[in-house]
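User: I'll paste a sequence; please echo it back and then give the predicted structure.

Assistant: Echoing your sequence first, then the prediction.
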Amino acid sequence: MLVVDDEVSLTELLSMALRYEGWDIRSAGDGAGAVRAARGFRPDVVVLDMMLPDMDGLAVLGRLRRELPDVPVLFLTAKDAVEDRIAGLTAGGDDYVTKPFSLEEVVARLRGLIRRSWASGRRSESVLAVGDLTLDEDSHEVTRGGESIHLTATEFELLRYLMRNPRRVLSKAQILDRVWNYDFGGQANVVELYISYLRRKIDAGREPMIHTRRGAGYLIKPAVLVA
């Protein structure tokens, strides 16, 4: 994710919150820096302030669209007039949040943009693959080594989150927020419980793919085959 805002404290706050959500973040304090960062980083989504020191957000958006025509863009601005919102959305912005805003609202809107982007097939195929494990997000079919694996709805969502972040350690808090939205009935060990369910179905009788990093969280990666 690319975060573009000339308010350093706001950029740092947003970046910290979004990194906690599992995103890789780059930031820029002006329009020229945003364009340079986008060229090198190729972000999946952009958070863009409308008022920047060298050019306005609409001009930055135009340049970004030439580099990344399909990247979703969320505008941040102190302007809350209807005509300003219309201008931002008409220019190609995908969503609009006015300052002051809550971090929860920004995160929720960004999740929505990412989901729509994935659903439209802009940046991803519907099939996730890690090693010999595949997950079809459309048909909800899961296979390992060509063998079909039946998962419950919650197991499927947990596996999908792991497979969207291969080799990345995901904390229990991140998993709770993304899979259960913290609505887990007060059962503190729900993550460990469902990880154990997945292991029985994914790893049983095979080289393991799901790993625990004690004190940090869980990750999935291709199995190491033993000769």
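The chain has a mean pLDDT of 83. The chain is about 40% helix and 20% strand.
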